[in-house]
Amino acid sequence: MADIKVLIVDDSASVRAALGDIIAVEPGMTVMGTASDPYFAAERMRAELPDVIICDIEMPRMDGITFVQKLMQQRPLPVVICSSLANAGSPAALAALEAGAVEIITKPRLGTTQFLLEARTRICDAVRAAAAARLRPRSRIETSRKLTADAVLPPPGRRTALQTTDRLVAIGASTGGTEALRLLLEALPADAPGLAIVQHMPAGFTAAFARRLHDLCRIEVREAETGDRLIPGLALIAPGDHHMLLHRSGAQYRVEVRQGPLVSRHRPSVDVLFRSTARAAGPNALGIILTGMGDDGARGLLEMREAGARTLGQDEASCVVYGMPKEAMRMGAVEAELPLARMAPEVMRFAAAEHSTAPAKG
C-alpha cells in the first residue's frame, strides 16, 4: 500500500518543521510538501495532489476555513485542521467542521512545537482517519432537503414538550458524523422520538455542537446531564470526555453522564451507550451506527439487536469513513444498511409502528 501523502499548510515555519518531522518518521506516511498559506498550497497541488492536508486557520491572504470551503466546492480533499483558534467549542472549530474538515487538533498559542511532538499519536491517527474519508463536492448552500424524502415526513411544526415516550433512538458516530448528524436531525419533525447520541468529540466541543444543532433543527438538541429524561422532540448529546448511559425507571428513560476508563479507545464510547440501551429499552429502541473510523459501537449494536432492538447502519456510499458501520455489519449487528437520506424517514417509521417492523427494503 502506498504511503499517505501529506501536505502541511501553516504560516509558522517552526510548526511546519515540527509537523514534518512527525509525519516523516511515521510508517506509511510521507510529507508531500509544505506551504505557508493556501495560495502556495494551491500552486503545489497543481503538480501533485496530496492524500491529506494538515492546515492552520489563521494564515495570511486566506484563512484556513475559507480554504477548506473552496476545496470542498471544487476539489474535495481530506483536511485536518491544526490550529490554536480551534479550541474546544469555539465558533472557529464548529465552522471548520461545517466547512468539511475531517478532524480537528487544537494547539496552544504557546509552546506549540513541544505540544505537537507530544501529540504525535493523535496527529498520526487524525491523518489516517482523514485518509480513509470519502468526500463529495459541496454546493455553497447545502440543505438537508436534498437528502430527505419529504413526502414521508410530517410537515414542519413547532417544538413540543410531550411527557412520555415508548420508543427511543440511540445513535453513534465518529469521523464525518458532525455533518451526518446535522442532516439527519434537521430532517426530523418536532415530534420525533427521543434520541441519545454519542459523537466522538473532545471535551468542550459538544455543548457548542449541540447549540448549533438546536438552532438548525425542529427538535430540541442539548448536551446531556445526568438525570435528563429522554422524551419525544429531544436529542441528548453525550458530553466530550464523558460516557452516557441510558436507564429506565418505570415508563421513563433517563440518562447518566459519568467519567470512567476509555471503552473501545473512546470516551464517550458508542459501545457504552448501545449496551446500556440494550438493557434498558430492548425492543423499544432503534440503534443507528453512522460514519466513523474504527469499531466503536459494533459490539454494543449487536447487543441491541440480540435484545430485540431494530438496528441500522449507514451505507458505504454515503459514509465519509465506512469503518464503524462496516465492522458492525461484519459482526451481524446491522439489520439493514441505508443511505443517510433514508435514516430520518426510517426513524419516523419506527416511531409510528404499533409493533416493531423491519426497515423497508430498497
Automatic annotation (TrEMBL):
<feature type="active site">
    <location>
        <position position="174"/>
    </location>
</feature>
<dbReference type="GO" id="GO:0005737">
    <property type="term" value="C:cytoplasm"/>
</dbReference>
<feature type="modified residue" description="4-aspartylphosphate">
    <location>
        <position position="56"/>
    </location>
</feature>
<protein>
    <recommendedName>
        <fullName>Protein-glutamate methylesterase/protein-glutamine glutaminase</fullName>
        <ecNumber>3.1.1.61</ecNumber>
        <ecNumber>3.5.1.44</ecNumber>
    </recommendedName>
</protein>
<keyword id="KW-0597">Phosphoprotein</keyword>
<dbReference type="InterPro" id="IPR000673">
    <property type="entry name" value="Sig_transdc_resp-reg_Me-estase"/>
</dbReference>
<dbReference type="GO" id="GO:0006935">
    <property type="term" value="P:chemotaxis"/>
</dbReference>
<feature type="domain" description="Response regulatory">
    <location>
        <begin position="5"/>
        <end position="122"/>
    </location>
</feature>
<keyword id="KW-0145">Chemotaxis</keyword>
<keyword id="KW-0378">Hydrolase</keyword>
<feature type="active site">
    <location>
        <position position="200"/>
    </location>
</feature>
<dbReference type="GO" id="GO:0050568">
    <property type="term" value="F:protein-glutamine glutaminase activity"/>
</dbReference>
<feature type="domain" description="CheB-type methylesterase">
    <location>
        <begin position="162"/>
        <end position="354"/>
    </location>
</feature>
<dbReference type="Pfam" id="PF00072">
    <property type="entry name" value="Response_reg"/>
</dbReference>
<dbReference type="GO" id="GO:0000156">
    <property type="term" value="F:phosphorelay response regulator activity"/>
</dbReference>
<comment type="function">
    <text>Involved in chemotaxis. Part of a chemotaxis signal transduction system that modulates chemotaxis in response to various stimuli. Catalyzes the demethylation of specific methylglutamate residues introduced into the chemoreceptors (methyl-accepting chemotaxis proteins or MCP) by CheR. Also mediates the irreversible deamidation of specific glutamine residues to glutamic acid.</text>
</comment>
<dbReference type="InterPro" id="IPR035909">
    <property type="entry name" value="CheB_C"/>
</dbReference>
<dbReference type="InterPro" id="IPR008248">
    <property type="entry name" value="CheB-like"/>
</dbReference>
<comment type="similarity">
    <text>Belongs to the CheB family.</text>
</comment>
<keyword id="KW-0963">Cytoplasm</keyword>
<feature type="active site">
    <location>
        <position position="296"/>
    </location>
</feature>
<dbReference type="InterPro" id="IPR001789">
    <property type="entry name" value="Sig_transdc_resp-reg_receiver"/>
</dbReference>
<dbReference type="InterPro" id="IPR011006">
    <property type="entry name" value="CheY-like_superfamily"/>
</dbReference>
<dbReference type="GO" id="GO:0008984">
    <property type="term" value="F:protein-glutamate methylesterase activity"/>
</dbReference>
<dbReference type="Pfam" id="PF01339">
    <property type="entry name" value="CheB_methylest"/>
</dbReference>
